[in-house]
Amino acid sequence: MERRSPSPELGSIVFFEHVNLRVPEHRLATLYFIEGLGLTRDPYRMVGTRNMWVNVGNQQFHLPIGDATPLQGEVGLVVPDLQEVESQLDHVAPALKGTSFSFEQVEGTLLTTTPWGHQIRIHPQGKLPGRLPQALAYVQFWVPPGTSAGIGAFYRDVLQCPIESELIEGDPAVRVTVGPYQLFRFREMKGAGIVPNNNHVAVYLTRYRSIYGTLTRMGLIMEEDDHDQFRFRSMVDPDTGTLLYSFEHEMRSLHHPDYRRPLANRVPVPYRVD
């Protein structure tokens, strides 16, 4: 019998739930995320005009109305049929003319740009580790040269996450495990910097009180604990306190009412059996 490699360990962060991207309006968001990518607007939550939650298997995009500030990096999306998504994007392209929307085939993926400049790279199911036909597999952040090792140390020592150094097309990077087959990647890119943005990621974690206490002592809390979640933004060198990168994190306990809330999807989400 063929032996499988052992299951990778998780750290304190056990589930990466959503990416929050502010957008100016929802008509174009519907064209891109729902008609183009084939995702599903959540029928139960945020169904008004101020926010829009889009289901991606067991995860979500959150799209509140606001000024768009594209993140420096890309979001990795897994879909069951890459050719079908390409056809759908081609169909909506005329309605998105005059925006930042684009898409192209790149080494077996579709590299897409939302109407407001956010980059989303689409992977076919089975090409990345994981067993779900629709999923957010990773967020890749472009960070200043010389910072990836320190950012990795912050996630390892402060947030208690497994990390691994790697090269991405020759660029130093660090890979952080933030759930089963879910990653944050921090890739050093020439010209990348710490820039203001209004986006965030949301994760669920164990050791909630311990990590909250550590971040409090370090002076990094931006939104106080309300018993179920808190927020921080700054990632610092754990030894020197030097600011390395900035991106808002919504940190939720496993007691949060949205933890593993069942989501409606037009694409069924059974596990792939290897």
Put the structure in a nutshell.
The chain has 274 residues and is of the alpha+beta class. It has helices at residues 26-36, 82-92, 148-157, 208-217, and strands spanning 13-20, 40-41, 53-56, 59-62, 73-79, 102-106, 109-113, 119-124, 135-143, 163-168, 171-179, 182-188, 200-205, 221-223, 229-236, 243-253.
Number of strands: 16
Q: Going across the major beta sheet, what is the strand order?
A: 2-3-4-1-13-16-15-14
Would you list the SSEs in sequence order as H and E?
EHEEEEHEEEEHEEEEHEEE
N→C terminal distance: 14 Å
Helical residues, percent? 10-25%
- Proportion of strand residues: 35-45%
Biggest sheet character? 8 strands, mixed
Question: Which structural traits does this protein have?
Answer:
8-stranded mixed beta sheet, 4 helices, 274 residues, alpha+beta
Task: Characterise the protein shown here.
The chain is an alpha+beta fold and 274 residues long. It has four helices and 16 strands. Strand 11 (171-179) and strand 12 (182-188) form a beta hairpin. Helix 1 (26-36) runs antiparallel to helix 2.
Topology (elements, then pairings):
Elements lengths: L12 E8 L5 H11 L3 E2 L11 E4 L2 E4 L10 E7 L2 H11 L9 E5 L2 E5 L5 E6 L10 E9 L4 H10 L5 E6 L2 E9 L2 E7 L11 E6 L2 H10 L3 E3 L5 E8 L6 E11 L21
Parallel strand pairs: 1-4, 5-8, 9-12, 13-16
Antiparallel strand pairs: 1-13, 2-3, 3-4, 5-9, 6-7, 7-8, 10-11, 11-12, 14-15, 15-16
